[in-house]
Amino acid sequence: MKLPDKKKNFLKWYSEIISYANIVDNRSPVKGSNVIMPYGYSIWESITKKLDAELKKTGHKNAYFPLFIPEDYLEKEAEHFDGFVPEVAWVTRAGDKELERKLALRPTSETIMYDMFRLWIRSHGDLPFKINQFCNIIRFDTKETKPLLRDREFLWSEGHTCHATAEDAERQVRESMKIYEAVYKLCCMSYLILRRPKHDTFAGAIYSIAYDCPLPDGRTLQIGTTHNLGQGFSKAFEIVFQDKDKQNKFVYQTCYGLSTRLIAAIIGLHGDEKGLIIPPYIAPIQVVIVPIYKKGQKELVIKESEKLKKKLLKAGFKVELDDREGYTPGWKFNEWEVRGVPIRIEIGPRDIENQQLVLVRRDKPVPTNKETIAIQDVTKEVKRILKEINDYLQKRADKLLEDSISHPKTYEELIEIQNTKRGFSRVNWCGDIECAEKIKEETGADIRGTREDIKEKPAGKCIVCGKEAKEVVYVAAAY
Amino acid sequence: MKLPDKKKNFLKWYSEIISYANIVDNRSPVKGSNVIMPYGYSIWESITKKLDAELKKTGHKNAYFPLFIPEDYLEKEAEHFDGFVPEVAWVTRAGDKELERKLALRPTSETIMYDMFRLWIRSHGDLPFKINQFCNIIRFDTKETKPLLRDREFLWSEGHTCHATAEDAERQVRESMKIYEAVYKLCCMSYLILRRPKHDTFAGAIYSIAYDCPLPDGRTLQIGTTHNLGQGFSKAFEIVFQDKDKQNKFVYQTCYGLSTRLIAAIIGLHGDEKGLIIPPYIAPIQVVIVPIYKKGQKELVIKESEKLKKKLLKAGFKVELDDREGYTPGWKFNEWEVRGVPIRIEIGPRDIENQQLVLVRRDKPVPTNKETIAIQDVTKEVKRILKEINDYLQKRADKLLEDSISHPKTYEELIEIQNTKRGFSRVNWCGDIECAEKIKEETGADIRGTREDIKEKPAGKCIVCGKEAKEVVYVAAAY
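The joint structure predicted for all components is written out below.
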């Protein structure tokens, strides 16, 4: 199998690899509504397990709200309605009857949740109030769909919180960021943390912070967002609490979301010309054992392989023994490389005789990828190498991010970069939407926002119009 | 708070308790599509955690398939189509556009999954093939909706398997039963395991086995089903594998489902006149600590309560410290009784002085519900009492099932029972659907099927028509 060049033809590489590696089957009959295969879903399970633990640790409680949202609910917050209605799927019939009022399938759950929050929240003793929901989300985007990158149905976690003061809501935004960053770390992600410009803020929010991950073709992918909603929704939905001073006040709100799209970023960021490389702590299979034997040696080698598998399973690793007949070891090596398993163990009669094993790591090239270790040390060594792979992937991802940032000095240079190698371009901006639109028109790239993790002061003029710059922003073309 | 009589007016009791106890909020704007509140959702998390572990242990892999199903997919298996179409919700619009073909929201996932299985399964080496999906399900039932008992949207786990032989499929049905029974055990459930009569078999299956739980008002609730699908679907969807003999053959299939309806059964089966009693191993809160103090004692008591909470959390229990101000201990006792927390710990200054605690268990009446224990033994004692509550609830549920079974000798007696106390009536049946329909007409009760766990031979005539009986069946009115 020969994959397309990842850098030059990323989308082709991506669409082939997710299929070869059994991540997604896009032969589903409904465009943009794909099948997440067990191998891909297992990555999502690792992500949600970590996310769930972090959310619970910080006092979030899980709940489940309806898929169906009446039209008038969506309408209650005007900006929100305008933002989502073009992509809403509507149920109009049930059985053979027309419904009296058509029902939206949730494109996000603010409106259906906040109407309940209104009933549940009474006093300052109920705050802070933190809800999370794992569910499916429906957005009939008119743009071209791409599995996991842009789906009409996807899975996500959505956090929604209410607070007594603006300061508490602000603190909550920081807490949600820490939670997401813990998840990203497990996936060895690199990203810029950007506060979106006003014109790209979540519909109904006062500001939005997003995580943008660089992909190999120079485009970026938003892998999570957190929004400070202020009192916009609480006023629209009348979410009121009695404060310590006995006054009735509107709550301050935040919300945040992280979806199966993160899987696409993981694949894009870490994969290489041979296929996937799945970060060790979210890998569905961390170690694959491939027995190697000639006629008459099978029984011995399989027996040792099974012992090894048992030992590694007992130590808590995710292990697969590939004892399939009718496939050569070379064929198996290739299959597990394509599927991105972090460690392969090769074991043959001579290894057993010498009580040793060959460990092959997926992240490094020949010949730095092989180590011979003593069988008795296998759990210790596997643990060490998984950690090393994790750290190496993180370092490589960080370098990729660093390399993706350009510093054009002129408008022409910006346009040139955004029409060729792309990536993030760090530029000064006056804050006028016209300048953003001009860049978009010439390159397809957007102003993605200002750095949230560090303060950057503009020194100079807007790269588009030459007027006084107000902000240092990052320009990139996004998926 | 005074609850309605649970036996005489179960549905009123049920609808009040799920609201008081924060299980479900049924004030959602869309009828039959309710909000599962955090306290209720936590029960579902405990159920799915156990279910997921059992499914994985037996080689099932989780995946995610589309919510949307094209109409022609549903039509492929004719019985299946007829069975589900009356309750299907249809998406016909997206944004402001009519869709070219309307899309069903999954009422179950056989058709969308099996079209993929056709592509994935190639040879006997791929079998057995076991997939599970946790997802939301949409059925616009025309009957009256009742939260968790009969919803238009609910959550479930659906298992789907493929096998090389009919014997393997038969074995799989038994495996799925063991899995479900392990989950039910955690919930202290009692039930009859019944093979449904032909006319009540799952649409497209060759037979269906169901778990029917007795509720206090004499009705029963189906809390899980497992179906042997034979080759009906595999022929309709062309799921073919190459066998060891190089012949192409259709796979044999099974499927099974367990939904949030189980929560309704747990509530109905275990609750009492004071409110919920949640089985200890699925309880969102296993132990609640209520500090009791007068002026000037607060600091000491709260400090000790927090120490206690920490100790119990560290030991792995789910613990809540109710240190809310402005509520009397008596008010708190009542609240946690209504919400069914298995153990309440009362702690006051004198207890601290004597290094002791009062443990109050939810399942037993005054005065057998109280024990005084030494503080230093608290984790050991909590562990013991949770186990005792679990065993007691199981015993009580088993007794409830036993008591719910009647043995009418005549048709008149059957009608009398099914029009009054109801429960399961064990009777002889000729197998004719007319006789089933006659019972249904006069009592609303159905022939729920024959025992699957034990063999029962009919001795006598059909209780309705007097012809030779073919089966011993159980009659009951179901939710």
